[in-house]
Amino acid sequence: MQNYLVIDIGGTDIKFATIDEKGTILTKDKVHTPQNKNDFLTAIDTIVKKHPDRQGIAICAPGKIADTTIHFGGALPFLDGIDFAAIYRADRVAVINDGKAAVLAEHWLGALKDSQNCAAIILGTGVGGGIILNNTLLNGAHFQAGELSFMCLDTKAEDFGGYAGSSLSAVQMIIHINNAVGNPDEKDGFKAFDALKAGNQQAKAIFAAYCHRLACLIMNIQSVADLDAFAIGGGISAQPLVLSGLKQAYEDIYANNPLIKLTFTKPKLVQAKFQADANLYGALYHLLILSK
């Protein structure tokens, strides 16, 4: 049985695990993410040295990933320019963007396992994503395919507020609901959904608008890629209201637009199987694909 070291670099924590080629997690742990380059590289090196019995290193990180080099780094700008393959030359190393890792995880062992053309949409501080066409991950000419946060949903907005990364921020949606209903902790997602379940009209209006924007995002992607299925992930996707609200919003688009109803085949909308471990599974699958 071959075991791999898998590292998921996040803004708060670095998660790492040993996983076999069938996707069985053997060990798992995490450390806080250092906020400067030198301490960060030391932390990664410590993790690597603690796992000498490995057949390769699979890494997931924010930012644009060109081959094994990180560019920009998202919330961790000091990652820009780091090439893990150059650092760990003795290993097979694969590096992938976190949104792309999520769709690979779902396509390998999750909710998109039987789909040849599919996407994952990850709802969090912004909107992450990945697209698979004909069983192949779509990278694009500049390794930026699937950067859904940059899809414009409001052409009248003069700033980033009109783009998906802002208008579909799950964090901002929760803050808006909590402020509207008077919850003291504006970032408490459970309280926000409690208000929705209780039928608070202000909460329902904010949530309905959010689901409509998400349905429009899916329609935009569908008009270009014509996919079989979309898996919805991220922390709020664990709430059944998210998928049911999205499905209703998508149905409303069809009901209100006869031309769309006659023209477009509806994709399947499903809840992502993996949550916190999605990036670990996807990063490993990426390495396994490259190793074939």
Automatic annotation (TrEMBL):
Q: Which domain of life is it from?
A: Bacteria
* Record keywords: Kinase, Transferase
Signal peptide extent: none
Gene Ontology MF terms in the entry: kinase activity
Q: Which family does it belong to?
A: Belongs to the ROK (NagC/XylR) family.
Protein name, entry field: Sugar kinase of the NBD/HSP70 family, may contain an N-terminal HTH domain
Source organism (scientific name):
Ligilactobacillus ruminis
